[in-house]
Write a structure and sequence with these properties.
Blueprint (H helix, E strand, L loop, with lengths): L15 H25 L19 E5 L9 H11 L5 H17 L4 H15 L4 H16 L5 H12 L3 E9 H10 L4 E5 L1 E4 L2 E6 L7 H13 L8 E4 L5 H6 L2 E5 L3 H10 L2 E3 L14 H22 L1
Helix pairs in contact: 1-8, 2-3, 2-5, 3-4, 5-7, 6-11
């Protein structure tokens, strides 16, 4: 895939593969968003929405997915759904389950677990049609993901939408799954890991590398350039210190359900924090009121889910 030439000057922490992954994800996200708008908008309704505060049409919001918008990791939920459909055997399911349990309990991303999950997913989908996985992704969302959305983070995203701003998911999960989730949440679109396909069939290889760490920042940078956004006016949300490069790009970074390293960094940088895992209000202020209500709802939803699992 040829470089898109969208990027502004960047720090050299990003590798060439990070740049390639970021550009590929941004291109896929914009293409999907445009196709969705063509399918849903009435004829002649192509205008960009105006922003209510300053009429700012150069602001947007970027949300990490795993443990930020949704409890747990989307890739592992996807693996459960594929196992149910007999895409792979019990031994592989056990590995997915262990990785998911670690992620839920530790609240951090283990690079080795993520690498194993990525390799497993690629081998599982190799030879399958993209359209088939997109259809299955819709079903898996209903089965395993819909009731794991954090209401508080969802309220934050809605506040941006209500302000007329575009809202994008940014995740290491496969872009097809990320786009399903974004569509179900009525968001603008999604940046995700792009798996190579030829004639609509997965090859078992990636374009670049997983959209993780610096690659996420490159994807946001590329999308912002293509959409003529001013990153200093944009917001980004994440739970993980791995996303500090993405959070540092924007003028309004938020730490949501942060891991220990991100919490320390956010406090040092005076970033806003919010923790929906317990429903308690974080130390920083200035979060939209809707998110405060969502925090209580998020804590209640988590308690109900835990109660159901124990029965």
């Amino acid at each position: 895939m040829a470089a898109l030439g969208w990027l502004t000057p960047r720090r050299r922490s990003a590798t060439a593969r990070s740049v390639l992954a970021g550009e590929a994800s941004a291109e896929a996200a914009r293409k999907s968003s445009q196709e969705h708008q063509e399918q849903t908008e009435p004829e002649g309704a192509g205008r960009e929405p105006e922003f209510p505060v300053l009429g700012d049409d150069r602001a947007a919001a970027f949300f990490d997915l795993d443990n930020t918008v949704m409890q747990g990791a989307a890739l592992f939920h996807f693996g459960r759904g594929l196992y149910k459909r007999k895409f792979f055997k019990t031994r592989e399911l056990a590995r997915f389950a262990w990785q998911q349990a670690w992620f839920r309990l530790a609240g951090v991303e283990d690079p080795e677990h993520m690498r194993e999950a990525r390799d497993s997913a690629l081998s599982i989908v190799q030879g399958h049609r993209v359209a088939e996985l997109e259809t299955i992704g819709e079903e898996i969302y209903d089965e395993y993901m819909a009731d794991r959305i954090w209401p508080g983070t969802r309220a934050l995203a809605q506040a941006h939408l209500d302000a007329g701003q575009k809202v994008w998911l940014v995740t290491a999960a496969p872009v097809e799954i990320a786009q399903v989730i974004a569509r179900r949440l009525a968001l603008t679109g999604a940046l995700g890991t792009v798996a190579e396909s030829v004639d609509g069939v997965y090859t078992g290889r990636l374009v670049g590398e997983p959209l993780h760490g610096p690659a996420k920042a490159e994807a946001v940078r590329a999308l912002a350039a293509a959409e003529a956004l001013d990153l200093s006016r944009c917001a980004a949300y994440s739970d993980s210190h791995n996303d500090i490069p993405m959070l540092s790009l924007v003028g309004h970074p938020y730490a949501i359900n942060p891991d220990a390293k991100l919490r320390r960094h956010a406090r040092d940088k005076d970033w806003r924090l919010r923790d929906y895992r317990t429903g308690r209000k974080a130390a920083k202020v200035g979060i939209p009121a809707a998110a405060g209500v969502g925090a209580v709802a998020g804590g209640t939803a988590a308690a109900i889910a835990l109660s159901r699992r124990r029965r």
